[in-house]
UniProtKB/TrEMBL annotation:
Organism, scientific name: Streptomyces griseoincarnatus
Role this protein plays: Catalyzes the conversion of 3-deoxy-D-arabino-heptulosonate 7-phosphate (DAHP) to dehydroquinate (DHQ).
Protein name, entry field: 3-dehydroquinate synthase
UniProt GO MF annotations: 3-dehydroquinate synthase activity
Binding-site residues for Zn(2+), renumbered to this chain: 189, 252, 268
Cell compartments where the protein resides: Cytoplasm
Domain 3-dehydroquinate synthase N-terminal positions: 72-182
Cofactor(s) needed: NAD(+); Co(2+); Zn(2+)
Length: 364
């Protein structure tokens, strides 16, 4: 793995879907026409406000290549993941006479790629789409694996579809304009990949946590590639989350509950960081996780500047919010915990007293 070469990570097709590759490197947009294929006449470039120039440049470039290209600008961050914004995109596609052979390109962070993928999944019951992630989080996680969706007032990602992209282009140059707060938020999913499957990720971050906070750090490409590999391996064998894929939800049961409680104003990665701290304490109290690995969660998350704590008095609301987690079955709450480093497992229906005790370490 190096900073210069283009790395290609393969995602196998399962459940009747096509395989595809995730490319990591620089100046990758030349790959787009090949991914678009030769049947498309129209391309819709869905991008957030923050990437207005990028979106327009891409639209103009595609128009120069002979496509009828439209740019669809959507709000930044979670404000894009709503039914209203999805409907706005459907309207734009309808007004462009967008057909089944046409292609959606989602350019942006995870919120944008989740929305763009969802729009592609639902338009005409599914059209081809390509992800061009521009945040760490979207490169290592959101754009890979075909989970697409939007939030509702009742919870995070409650409406969506499994609809894998035709390809994912991770241009590392995009990260240079990312505010540090958003860069660091993405490290939560990188650290998650380290705890559930690839501890070398943790070693690399711990070797220089300050450097890990910037795209100029010495291990940026390797951290991104290793995290993508973790995700690609999991979704290659379990696209629709019938089992193994649940491990990617480490830290998310509480994390999503916090996001909803904050009306989606917290960054996803920050909420997942608190959620992983909670999951580590839960694993420890359930007698599964050793002290050293549980403590390592605190040190590595804190070292890169991610939060560990949330409001203690919000626990009853968080418990309510967790009931709509997609891993729940009836009234049974289910949490991904670790049996040890890189040994994820599911803890079903833990004693409410144990849950509260774990939250006692997290709440402030
Ligand atoms: N589908 C999945 O498997 C999956 C996995 C993980 C996370 N997610 C979702 O991803 C979302 C979080 O993604 P995120 O952390 O990328 O946040 P985000 O998409 O909200 O982006 C953060 C902010 O950065 C801006 N931005 C994006 N790229 C930029 C760039 N290169 N330069 C400057 N600004 C830029 C965005 O417009 C936004 O304002 C959440 O909605 C989460 O649920 C989905
Ligand atoms: O891809 C997955 O599967 C994940 O769980 C990855 C998570 O990082 C991601 O936030 C995902 O969107 C959560 O899925 P959800 O099904 O809990 O909404
Ligand atoms: Zn996530």
């Amino acid at each position: 793995m190096s900073n210069e070469a283009v790395t290609r990570i393969h995602v196998a097709g399962t459940a009747g879907t096509e395989p595809y590759d995730v490319l990591v490197g620089r100046q990758l947009l030349g790959e787009l026409p090949g991914l678009i294929g030769d049947k498309a006449q129209r391309i819709a470039v869905i991008h957030p406000e923050a990437l207005a120039e990028t979106g327009e440049a891409l639209r103009a470039d595609l128009a120069g290549q002979g496509y009828e290209a439209v740019a669809i600008q959507v709000p930044n961050a979670e404000e894009a993941k709503t039914a209203e914004v999805a409907a706005y995109c459907w309207k734009a596609l309808g007004q462009s006479n967008f057909t089944r052979t046409d292609v959606v390109v989602g350019v942006g962070g995870g919120a944008t790629t989740d929305l763009a993928g969802f729009v592609a999944a639902t338009w005409l019951r599914g059209v081809r789409w390509i992800a061009v992630p521009t945040t760490v989080l979207a490169m290592v996680d959101a754009a890979v694996g075909g989970k697409t969706g939007i939030n509702t007032a009742e919870g995070k990602n409650l409406v969506g579809a499994f609809h894998p992209p035709a390809g994912v282009l991770c241009d590392l140059a995009a990260l240079d304009s990312l505010p540090v707060h958003d860069y660091v938020s993405g490290l939560a999913e990188v650290i998650k990949a380290g705890f559930i499957a690839d501890p070398v990720i943790l070693d690399l971050i711990e070797s220089d946590p300050e450097a890990a906070r910037t795209p100029a750090g010495p291990h940026t490409a390797e951290l991104i590639e290793r995290s993508i590999k973790v995700k690609a391996d999991v979704v290659s064998s379990d696209l629709k989350e019938s089992g193994l894929r649940e491990i990617l939800n480490y830290g998310h049961t509480l994390g999503h509950a916090i996001e909803k409680n904050e009306r989606y104003k917290w960054r996803h990665g920050a909420a997942v960081a608190v959620g992983m701290h909670f999951a580590a304490e839960l694993g420890r109290l359930a007698g599964r996780l050793d002290d050293a690995t549980a403590d390592r969660h605190r040190t590595v998350l804190q070292a890169v500047g991610l939060p560990l704590h949330y409001r203690y008095d919000q626990w009853p609301k968080l418990v309510e919010n967790m009931k709509v987690d997609k891993k729940s079955r009836g009234n049974l709450l289910r949490f991904v915990v670790l049996d040890g480093l890189a040994r994820p497992t599911v803890l079903e229906g833990p004693d409410p007293a144990v849950l509260l005790a774990a939250y006692g370490e997290v709440g402030q």
